[in-house]
Amino acid sequence: MAQVRGLWQPRGEAAEASPEQPESYQLRQENELQVLESIYGRDFQDLRHGKPWKQPPEIKLVLRPQGLTGDREVYAKVDLWVQCPQTYPDTVPEIELQNAKGLSNENINLLKSRLEELAKERCGEVSWWGLLYYSIMRC
After folding, report:
1. Domains in the chain, number
2. What global pTM score does this model have?
């Protein structure tokens, strides 16, 4: 048996004849969603529920200052809404900041501008985690 990408496959013509196929957009998107959901729990919301199957990701995530999660009283937070095109991560997602609490308009606009810059810089790679980490550090 040979190990290919962490999976064990039998040796032989089938395993050796097919070169590794790149992951599909949908698989890359779904893998990234699973990671985000496992990290952020109930602060993560997949907005595609109830929509037709195989829609590109649309999420909302509650961003709070680093270290503050759950029901503890938070004086600053904002919802990050992300809508991905079918070809994400090779196309930049649409980003909005909504329902801001405890942040000035200037800070919200600065954060949104920087997130859009980061999304463009990281075009071609799954990048939500990096964008979210940046957002949390700046809240």
Report:
1. 1
2. 0.71
